[in-house]
What we know:
This is Peptide chain release factor 3. Residues 2-258 form the Tr-type G domain. The protein is α+β, with helices and mostly antiparallel strands. It folds into three domains: 8-58 and 100-253, Rossmann fold (3-Layer(aba) Sandwich); 275-358, Rossmann fold (3-Layer(aba) Sandwich), CATH 3.40.50; 370-504, Alpha-Beta Plaits, CATH 3.30.70. It has twelve helices and 31 strands. The strands form seven sheets. The protein has an eight-stranded antiparallel β-sheet with strand order 26-23-25-24-28-29-27-30. It has a seven-stranded mixed β-sheet with strand order 2-3-1-4-5-11-6, with helices on both faces. It has a six-stranded antiparallel β-sheet with strand order 16-15-21-12-13-20. Helix 3 packs parallel to helix 4 (112-123). The protein is globular.
Amino acid sequence: MAERRTFAIISHPDAGKTTLTEKLxxxxxxIHLAGEVKARGQARRARSDWMKIEQQRGISVTSSVMTFERxxxxxxxxxxxxxxxxxxxxxxxxxxVDSAIMxxxxxxxxxxxxxxxxxxxxxxxxxxxxxxNKVDREGREPFELMDxxxxxxxxxxxxxxxxxxxxxxxxxxxxxxxxxxxxxxxPSKEFLGKIDTDATIPEEFAEQVELAQIGYPExxxxxxxxxxxxxxxxxxxxxxxxxxxxxxxIATHAPPPRPQPSEAGPVEPTKDxxxxxxxxxxxxxxxxxxxxxxxxxxxxxxxxxxxxxTPSGLGKPIAVHSPIMFFAQDREIAxxxxxxxxxxxxxxxxxxxxxxxxxxxxxxxxxxxxxxxEILRRVKLADPTKTKQLRKALxxxxxxxxxxxxxxxxxxxxxxxVVGQLQLDVLISRLAAEYKVDASLEPAPFATARWVKxxxxxxxxxxxxNRANMAKDRDDDPVFLAKSPWDVGYQQEKNPxxxxxxxxxR
Length: 506
């Protein structure tokens, strides 16, 4: 357990997250050649991006897991969607990690999506290591970038490495602790392993380095693990500069598996009983087999293949015969797993996002909610005879958390809810590619949805007066479909005994 590091990489699109993922795998020995994780025939697509729409658009829209070992440490790297529309899936992925690497483009600094994802990490006090990428290109001054991180994110910053020049004047990366410089070599100026231990820094940069060392707080591992301080590394993922420093920092400073919140209080990783939670469900990772994999973060106990665990949503135990460890799309059967590990459980719709699994069915993990959709649409079939296939597809995709499906009390047209526009594109793309269903979307007469909570009798009375606006979700829970945010406020005022909630825990 002490040798486990479960972490994610967060960034704005195009900051270099996919390239850094590849170089971390290369540094960790999980692959042997840069470019090996590129999908066949798809130049510059990393192996972690496997869905068709991802390859077309060059963005990650699902979360993959990659496990690799280096110097006795097992790293579980969770690749998160970087697109701004995927906050919900990304949020759930970040509930499963113990630390994160925040990638910032040296020319752009902190962008909106970076900040949004950072705030999600802050909710759970996830420790952050900052990697300022692309320093071999023209960018902003290192001090300006450091101060922006400190001011915008209200974090103490501590430089661990420093760029000797940037852009056309880039001469290497200085390790502030050892004083050694990793220098570029070769025709493409990549880092090929030359480290100058007796480095002399050009005078114009020496003053910068001195200021960097005295101007910021020293590294404090406790402050970092509490989420109050971020160590900052500079480098270029593409040219392989500074990547080793980052993986070594994760190994040395990042926390091993942390306690996870539950209804009965934090569950310690040292607890004997095996427990975990499902933070993601992914269908059709292998389209040949129409498979369905639930990703479980193991929280406590030593899991052994064939064990029986009870999902909170099911109530009866299931035997986990074929647990999977992942390297992107490649997978192998796991005989054992420790707290912090992510295992895939093949199933046929029995496991859903937010389910807790345990040996005695006495643990309910918290903090994995559904979010109220911000966009509502109706699905229109090109071929009405495909209704059954559409229902199956929508059930599958709602189990994955890609969409939410609402069944109105009046009328037969199902309403689809999503957090971001891109999810609608993913829906149409996957309906066609995986389910052979040709469909389009049309506007729904609703702007937002809220889960109605409170006394059952009061809910029934409210539903009786608002039948045209009432629906059920896939768990048969009552949902109020509002025509505008004003409508929600008005109903809340009229019905003070009821709660119109923007989230719903499983």
